[in-house]
Design a protein that fits this description.
Helix content is about 40%, strand content about 30%. The protein is of the alpha+beta class. It has two domains: about 100 residues, PH-domain like, CATH 2.30.29.30; about 55 residues. Helix 1 packs antiparallel against helix 2.
Length: about 180
Amino acid sequence: MHPYKLKYHKNSVLLIAMVGIPIFFISLLVYCLFSLPQSLSEFSTLMLVSLSIITMALIMLWITKTQIFVRSKVHIDENGIRFRLKSTSLLYRRTEYFSGWENISRVTEMFDNHNGGYFYQIAFKNPSFIANFSPLKNHEAEAERFFLELQHYQENYNIAHQLPYSTALKPSNSF
C-alpha cells in the first residue's frame, strides 16, 4: 500500500469561501463608509475602498492556497480509502477519514480548466460529501498512479463511474 500525496478540497467549502468572504468584506466596507464623516475627501474614500478590495483579494488568495486546497496523504487498499490532511485548516473539521468501498457511490475524473490537468472526485454516502483530489505541483505522475489504482478498486467493487458532463449523453427535448 503506497501512500499518495495529493491536494484535497471540498466543493462546498470552496463555494462558501468564494461567496461568503467577499460578502463579509463588502458588508464591512459599506458599514465603514456609512460610519465615516461626510467631510472626508473623495481621495480618502477612494483609498479606503481600494485598500479594502486589495486586502480582500490577498486574503482570498491566502485562503485558497492554504486553507481550501490542502495537502493530504491518501492510502487505498482492498479495505477502502483513507486520507489524512497534512496541515491544519480553519475550514475543515475532519482531518482524517476512512471509508470502506461500500460507502463510496461514485468516482469521477474531471478536467480542471483553470490548471489544465485532471482531478478526481470521490462521492461518499455516509456522511454524504464529495472529496476532490488533485495532483501536487510536479507530482502529476503520482496522481495518475493513484487514479489507476482507484480505477482497479472501482471495477472490483462495482462503484459507479460518472462521465464528465461534456461527454455524457444529453437528454432530448422530443416528445
